[in-house]
Design brief:
The chain is 19% helix and 37% strand. It is α+β, with helices and mostly antiparallel strands. The longest helix has 18 residues.
């Protein structure tokens, strides 16, 4: 079952020991312990057709060490880890000369709807209290204690054939 260019750039996944997001000018902070920090860029052509499949992959992808430090053995779901998901339209930044442009990013109103649906699906498929977010469209300060990182920028995400995904896996 081929999924075509849907959520083509949930571009950066980071394994973290802990992460937090604080909204500029606000006291509250959302934070997680060990888990995934996910930066989401939503393209103007993205839609909700494959949100279920993407949520399943994000929760089940085996990025974490198992017993005896065996790599790529455990997932967020299997270890009952946490997820911090942050919207980031700048992942679609292009430069026209020295000036950044975001003409490939979805408009804010529709991107917020799609982002909120993604977050809701993750909460439905996992444990609501384990899914934290930033605040869509706000200036945010993000801190993380990284445990290696994963950066996606091209052909496919973990078995879902999406034309714009590539996976590059780095381990410290």
């Amino acid at each position: 079952n081929t999924v075509e260019k849907i959520m083509s750039d949930i571009s950066i996944l980071k394994k973290v020991n802990q992460a937090s997001v604080c909204i500029k000018g606000k006291e509250s902070t959302n934070k997680i312990g060990k888990g995934l920090l996910i930066y989401v860029g939503i393209n103007k052509n993205d839609n909700e057709e494959s949100l279920d499949a993407i949520c399943e992959k994000l929760l089940n992808i085996k990025l974490f060490h198992g017993e005896g430090e065996t790599r790529w053995k455990e997932s967020v779901l299997s270890l009952e880890l946490e997820v911090l998901i942050v919207s980031n339209f700048t992942l679609y930044c292009n430069f026209k000369g020295a000036k950044p442009t975001f003409n490939h990013s979805m408009d804010g109103t529709n991107a917020k709807i799609l982002f909120d649906k993604l977050v809701q699906k993750l909460k439905e498929k996992y444990k609501e209290e384990k899914i934290k977010t930033g605040e869509f469209g706000e200036y945010m300060f993000i801190n993380s204690d990284n445990d290696g990182f994963i950066w996606n920028e091209g052909d496919s995400i973990y078995g879902i054939d999406i034309p714009a995904w590539k996976q590059i896996i780095h381990e410290d």
